[in-house]
Amino acid sequence: MENSIGMLKEALIYMDLEAEDKFDALKTMAEDFVKLGYGKASFTEAVLEREKNFATGIPTQTIGVAIPHADPIHVADKALGIAILKKPVDFVILGDDTATVPVEMIFMIATNEPDGHIETLQKLMEIFQNSALLDQIRQAKNKEAVLEIFSQI
Description:
Blueprint: E1 8-17, H1 22-35, H2 43-53, E2 57-59, E3 64-66, E4 79-93, E5 96-110, H3 116-128, H4 131-138, H5 143-151
Parallel strand pairs: 1-4, 3-5
Antiparallel strand pairs: 2-3, 4-5
Protein name: PTS system IIA component, Gat family
Domain PTS EIIA type-2: 6-153
InterPro entries: PTrfase/Anion_transptr, PTS_EIIA_type-2_dom, PTS_SugarTrans_NitroReg
C-alpha cells in the first residue's frame, strides 16, 4: 500500500475555503471528489450522512480539525483532500456528542479498501499531535506549499 499521505491531491487542497457551516464545507469538498473521479455518485450524500451520525471533529493542542470520510462502497479511488477554512466552523467532537470544536482544517479521506482509512487516520493523528506542523500547514500560502510540507512527512 502506498504511503497514505501520498493520497493528497493538489486539486483537493482548498486555501481559505469559505463555508457557512460544516455541511457547506463538506459538500464543497465531496462534490469535487466526485467530479475528479475519486468519489462515486453516492459519495457526497454518504459523507454528509456519516457526519450527522458519527462526529469527526478533533480538538488538538492548537486548533480544531475534522476527519470526514465515507464507507469504501462510495469511493472510486483513494484520495486525501485538505481544506484550510477562511473562518472556523463548528464540528461535533469525535466521541463526545455533547460538545463542539471550532474547526480550521478539514482532512477528507476517500479509500476504497475496507480498512484503508485506518492507516491514513494513524498518519493524520501523528500530524495532529505536532502543533508546529499543523501551524505550518494552516499558514501555508498556496497549494504547492501544502504539498511540499506533506512531501516531507
